[in-house]
Amino acid sequence: MTEPAPADMSAYPVDMTVSPEVTGFFDPGTNTISYIVKDSASQACAVIDSVLDFDYAAGRISHASADRIVEAVKAWGLTVEWLIETHAHADHLSAAPYIQKQLGGKLGIGEQITVVQEEFGKIFNEGTEFQRDGSQFDRLFAEGDTYTIGAMTAFTMHTPGHTPACMTHVIGDAAFVGDTLFMPDGGTARADFPGGDARELYRSIRKVLSLPAQMRLFMCHDYGPGGREIRWETTVAEERANNIHVRDGVSEADFVAMRIARDKTLAVPKLIIPSIQVNIRGGELPEPDEAGRRYLKVPLNEL
To answer: What does the angle CA 166 – CA 170 – CA 176 come to, to the nearest 5 degrees?
Structure first.
């Protein structure tokens, strides 16, 4: 089988002379890393992949993880211009609306969120009042779209495979890959969720790894394989040389076979049911009933 050609990076406004200041916030409950990405030339910033704390057993929402970000933004005198979701997460709830209410900013996600909304709208038996047009977000990003954070120009790369709506956001010499890639010793994301596809994932990863060798890559998750300390920053060069699933020389066919076999052994994420219902709504909780109570659904034998 012919391997896909490297992506044409000339189509993207790559600018390695711009180096945003990136601060990661690790949430041990979900192994998620959220980011504040600051323009080095101004006080403008973006918040990427924030986390809303959820005690599943008690059915209680709290905000300690999000408050760490809010407090940092205020302490550093920053202005939030964007709240970015790299995709509709299945392992944690988004805190974007909570942060937006306090700090402002526009909420953005990939335009294929509409596909995810349609798929999971059926699984969760959402009524006609649930809009499946992405209108819960302020901006739906398409392949190659640009936006600004202060003086920095960011651009988006559509990188499906884990989910149809996955986007990699490239800001100067920093790329935020969502769940598409893990650290080199962690490999790659699963591709067995509804709308996932291992072949698409491989091609998306090769597109990301066609970025300049010294491009900084920032992960959405890290699980500390082998008991090592948690890490979330690597480079294109390091991934191409050492990623255990998709380093240079691993063929598409071999990757797809590995990914399908591996995914069959993985448990369903423990927060997938609440996470998806909230995240396809842009991080908003389901509408309350007449008494002001909110409920999440548990679809039986559907996931």
So the answer is: 55
Q: Token pair of 21, please?
A: 């200041």
Which residues lie across from 27 on neighbouring strands? 32
Determine whether 259 is exposed, middle or buried from the number of CB atoms within 10 Å of its CB (0-12, 13-18, 19+).
buried
Give CA–CA dist 75/71, Å, rounded.
6
Question: CA 267, 270, 271, 276 torsion: positive or negative?
Answer: positive
Q: Distance between CA atoms of 133 and 251, rounded to whole angstroms?
A: 36
> In the β-sheet with 146-149, what is the strand arrangement from edge to edge?
146-149, 152-158, 167-171, 174-176, 216-218, 233-235
Tokens read off for 232: 């979330």
What counts of helices (H) and strands (E) characterise the chain?
7, 14
Asked whether the beta carbons of 162 and 187 are under 8 A apart, the reply is no
In tens, the pLDDT along 153-197 reads 999 999 999 999 999 999 999 999 999 999 999 999 999 998 999
For 120, other C-beta atoms within 10 Å of its C-beta total 25
Closest CA relative to residue 238, chosen from 259, 263, 208: 208
* pLDDT score of 207: 97
**What is the C-alpha separation between 49 and 148, in angstroms, rounded?**
18
